[in-house]
Protein priB
Amino acid sequence: MKIRCEGKEDPPCRRCRNFRLECTFTQSKGRGDDDEGEQARRRIASLEGEVTGISHTVTGINQKLEDLGVLLQRLAGGAVGGGLPRMHQHSSPAMPHHGGHLGYGGPMDEVSPAHTHSTTHPTPPTARDLAIDAITGPMSNSPSHHPSSSASHHYTLVGRSPAAMNPPWTGSVPPEAVSRAIPGRTHGGEWANGHPPPSVPGTDSLPSLVREGTISDEDDHDPLESSMQEPFRELTRKEEEARLRAEGHDPAVRRMSHSRNAEGGAVRSSKRKRLNDEDDPDWGTSPIVEKGDPRANAQDPVTAGFCTEEEGKELFQAFFKHAHPFIPVLNPREDTWENLRQRSPFIVTVILSIALRARDGCGPPSDLTKKCRDSAEDMAKQTLFSPIATLETVQALTLITSWGEHAWRTCCHAMALAVDMRLYRCLPYLYKIRTQSRKPDANLERQMPLVAGARVWLALVKQSYEMSFNHAQPIQFSGSLQERIPYARELLQHPLSTVYDSRFLVSIELCAAREEAFRPWTASSCQDLSSVDDVLRKVNKGIDTCYEYWLNYYHRVGVPSDHFLVKELGSQKAYGIMFANAAAWYGVHSKNDAVLLSAERRQWVQSALRAAAFLTSSIGSGRQEKDSEFGNHNFHVAIVATARYLIRMCELIPDAADLNQVSLDIDRLLLKLPFYPVVPFAESLRRTLAKARDQGVLPYTSISEQADAAM
């Protein structure tokens, strides 16, 4: 009986399966037929995917066309009414609002329309995509944009004027579509004849064409990630932007590099941009965060009409010649009169007020001094409530802290601004460039903001230490020296650093050596005497070690022994020894108590007395007398406090000093004090000296009457 196969469409057939026979249908099917079927199925699946993608693309195009139609209706309505309707501005945090052209401009003008924002996006572009486009330019031969892929197509915007930058785009219509939709507008954002048509006035400064709140950029930031690091930042940033915009600032200004051209000051980019380019992709993202424009709503004394330009230049040069070495937060080679006037009226006003302060001395302040001081203080007050934060602003506040009164409060504010700007990251970032970049010396001009930021941070750390020690207040943002100023000594090897940068390091390291003995949280009566002795041994050794290192450094780099920095090194060591060993005086109120001191403690207090005598003689008539009238506020207050402390120590241990020489040095200091702006402190020193002489502690000298009359 012949068994025929049945069910050809589903081999093996039913009969062959039942009888467990080899089905002829299965035998007739070859391997080639199976491969062809599989390939056909794959092609069908691929076509289905392409059709789905086309469907999504068409949907996106339709949405864009609808938005474009609404936009054209608004433009038509504005033209009929004689202008565009008034709309709220809404800026993305990553883009500046310069009120310039709508087109991309710059390098993007050279890209054909086919390379503009691709229509393969299934949805309208996000704010992040548009921000990346505005910074790096559109990616050629790429259907989409991604932040990680933009680095290789980075376009440097340094040197372009703010008018060439682009306003933020917050809607769902690409800016180039708007540029093509406006008659006479070229793809690059320029008008064909160079001017907007007369029927649409004000188009050169179009605000954002989408009302505020139509698209939010909050979705670009993951709340989970933000909660792990800075949970409030994305929300408070919007408050800061609104305040900056209301004050006439660009709400999203970031520094790329200084511009030293003749036309303007610091050219700022539209975002905290990447410093790397095709030549060296190792630089990463700049750590400095800046907000606002230091030139907005401010005038320097010359522009305000307080003084002539000749007088302003004279005061400016006097500051850099005599006062700047005390707090060298600026670079005289780059921070010139013309450059600083273009970059920051605030810092120019502060500089002139400092020079005027030294010129007035103990006399009444001149009208020009009052005007400059009041103007500088007004600009400083604005930074208390405005979120503006720029390098020039912090530099100016640093100078105000050094030469102004109430320095503790100003120092705290300046330090808070520096932390907000992330200036503490400049030192490790520079170290990374020097050690890991393939071309660390390429484009040094772009590293200038980093060096300036590192210099300002060191100055503020120095001031924070000194303010805390002088006022017995806790140290701001305390931590180990390696945490606060990592790779600080390496800064001196940078090509853009100056020898005066070492002044900050000397002060910081000497203060750090004293830090263990500084205990503002604990009263002296509650401290264990043996532990205090252990700390003083360590502190004195640390001060000597630090002094020897920096003295050898100055000799190694060729700094002469009579240089300001070498003289200041000796003075700072003396201040460290004098104030650190003051703890050894605990329990001493009279000569009898001083006799009971241990040999080691007596040695420490004698070192403090000798250090005070050295300071009084060197500043009163010795190696530091020159330009001492230009010294900062702490410089003048410290020498008066030192002289009064010296008189008291001579009363307790008179055999440890030459009393005649001490008395003569103090008289010479009194003759110098009228040139210092320290009238109340000078009178206090005069009374203390008169009392000591009445009690027989110090003798009169040949110039005592002259010194007393000078006060």
Q: What stands out?
A: The two ends are 141 Å apart (CA to CA). Residues 28-32, 78-219, 255-282 have pLDDT under 50 and may be disordered. Strands lie at 254-257, 267-269. The longest strand covers residues 254-257.
